[in-house]
Amino acid sequence: MKVTLSFDNGPTETTREVLDVLAQREIRASFFVVGTQLAEPGMRRYTERAAEEGHWIGNHTLTHTVQFGDSADPGLPHREIGSAQDLIGDLAHRDKLFRPFGGGGILDRRLLSSPAIDYLQNHAYTCVLWNCIPHDWDRPDDWVETCLTDIATRPWSLVVIHDLPTGAMTHLPRFLDALESLGAEVAQDFPESCVPMRNGVVTGSLDHLTA
Ligand SMILES: [Zn+2]
Question: How many angstroms separate the alpha carbon of residue 9 from the centre of ligand 1?
Answer without folding.
Answer: 5
